[in-house]
Amino acid sequence: MKRGWITWDKTELPPSVFETRLAAVRLHLSHKDLPALVVYTDVWRSNQGRYLANFMPYWNRALLVIPRDSAPVLLCGLSPRVYPWIRSVTILEDIRPNMNLAKMCDENGWTKIGVLDLPQFPCDLSVPDGVDVPWSAIHPEPDEAELSMYRRAAKMAREILAEESPSGFDHEFVGRLERKYRRAGAEDLVILVTNGDTPPQPPKGLILGPASSISIAMEYRGHWVKIVGPGFQPAAGLLAGVQLLSGPYPYEYCHSPDLKPGAIFAAVTESAVNGKRIFQGGTYRLGPNGQELL
Question: What domains are there in the chain, each with its CATH number?
Answer without folding.
Answer: 15-138 (3.40.350.10), 144-293 (3.90.230.10)
